[in-house]
Write a structure and sequence with these properties.
Layout lengths: L1 E4 L6 E2 L1 H14 L7 H7 L4 H7 L7 H15 L5 E2 L3 H9 L3 E5 L4 H10 L8 E3 L12 H10 L6 E5 L2 H10 L2 E5 L6 H4 L6 E2 L2 H12 L1
Parallel strand pairs: 1-4, 1-6, 4-5, 6-7, 7-8
Antiparallel strand pairs: 2-3
Helix pairs in contact: 1-4, 3-4, 5-10
């Protein structure tokens, strides 16, 4: 079995880091700050799409992304925490499955975060934004992870907290579990997966019981 995890809202809580860095990018580029709830509603999308969604013009988007990345690199480890049960879920899943991470975050920073939490070595692959042309909800990130794992013929599950994760799983024709530990709402997640659970702990227990 292969289990692929999203990061933000699934394994980690980086809300504070993302919101502060988003505001920093707006300040640096003389753009009015947007409401925190608006930022949180966009978490899971690639940065360029997040900034486009708050009204940044196409010809300025990459300036904002550059400002964001420069600041995020400085504060991400200090202002990011593991979600409750995340570590236990990873350790438990590692006992019976091959693990990977599929995220729209920059892969380089994602790896730094997981190494900071001393968990990166449990994962055999990490696919970030720079690794694909088409991010979630496209199937490409999941398919690339499976290609690297040489796991096309294995049972595959994607665990994530937003519709982007679940739609990507549908597009890649793999199984999915939506978790309510992050940014997606239950009613929305139910449109794209038959299995919606509270957090990764419940998700891994569900999959472990299927193995018996």
């Amino acid at each position: 079995m292969v289990i692929l995890f999203d990061l933000d809202g699934t394994l980690i809580d980086s809300t504070q880091a993302i919101v502060e860095t988003f505001h920093h990018a707006c300040d640096t580029n003389n753009f009015d700050r947007v409401d925190e709830e608006k930022i949180k509603s966009l978490i899971g999308y690639p940065l360029d799409i997040m900034f486009q969604n708050i009204g940044v013009k196409d010809n300025r988007v990459w300036d904002f992304v550059a400002s964001y990345k420069e600041e995020y690199r400085k504060i991400s480890t200090q202002k990011t925490t593991l979600l409750k049960y995340a570590k236990e879920s990873i350790l438990s899943a590692h006992e019976f499955a091959t693990l990977g991470i599929v995220t729209t975050k920059t892969g380089r920073y994602s790896k730094v975060l997981m190494e900071h939490f001393e968990l990166m070595h449990y994962f055999d692959v990490l696919i970030g934004r720079e690794d694909v042309e088409h991010p979630k909800p496209d199937a490409q990130p999941i398919l690339k992870a499976l290609q690297k794992l040489k796991a096309q013929d294995k049972e595959v599950w994607m665990i994530g907290d937003t519709k982007l994760d679940l739609i990507a799983a549908q597009n890649a024709k793999v199984n999915s579990i939506g978790v309510l530990s992050g940014y997606g709402k239950e009613d929305e997640l139910k449109k794209f997966s038959d299995i919606i659970l509270s957090d990764t702990s419940q998700a891994i227990n569900y999959l472990k019981n299927r193995k018996k």
